[in-house]
């Protein structure tokens, strides 16, 4: 799954590797047998975003 983000006026890409179940969970499909699927996908996306953008530069 690829995601685009506009940051400081420029378009950058963040690439995150998700399992098929994680991608489905982000679309709203519920996995009653494993409720951690969506949380796992969200953690991967958050980690990739934090590695890509420098948040400390924003605060200055």
Topology (SSEs and partners):
Layout: E1 2-7, E2 10-15, H1 20-26, H2 36-52, H3 55-59
Antiparallel strand pairs: 1-2
Helix pairs in contact: 1-2
Low-confidence regions: none
Q: How far is it from the N-terminal to the C-terminal residue, by CA?
A: 32 Å
Query: Order of helices and strands, N to C?
Result: EEHHH
The outline comes out as: elongated
Helical stretch tally: 3
Main β sheet profile: 2 strands, antiparallel
Helix content: 40-55%
- Whole-number radius of gyration? 14 Å
Compute the number of strand runs: 2
Protein described:
The protein has 60 residues and is of the alpha+beta class. Strands 1-2 form a two-stranded antiparallel sheet. It has helices spanning 20-26, 36-52, 55-59, and strands spanning 2-7, 10-15. The chain has a domain at 32-59. The protein is elongated, with a radius of gyration of 14 Å. Helix 1 crosses helix 2 (36-52). Strand 1 (2-7) and strand 2 form a beta hairpin.
Q: Short description, anyone?
A:
This protein has helices at residues 20-26, 36-52, 55-59, and strands at residues 2-7, 10-15.
For the structure shown, list the relevant keywords.
alpha+beta, two-stranded antiparallel sheet, 3 helices, 60 residues, 48% helix
């Amino acid at each position: 799954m690829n995601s685009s983000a506009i940051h400081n006026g420029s378009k950058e890409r963040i690439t995150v590797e998700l399992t098929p179940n994680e991608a489905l969970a982000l679309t709203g499909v519920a996995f009653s047998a494993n409720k951690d699927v969506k949380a796992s996908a969200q953690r991967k996306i958050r980690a990739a975003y934090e590695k890509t953008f420098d948040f400390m530069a924003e605060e200055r």
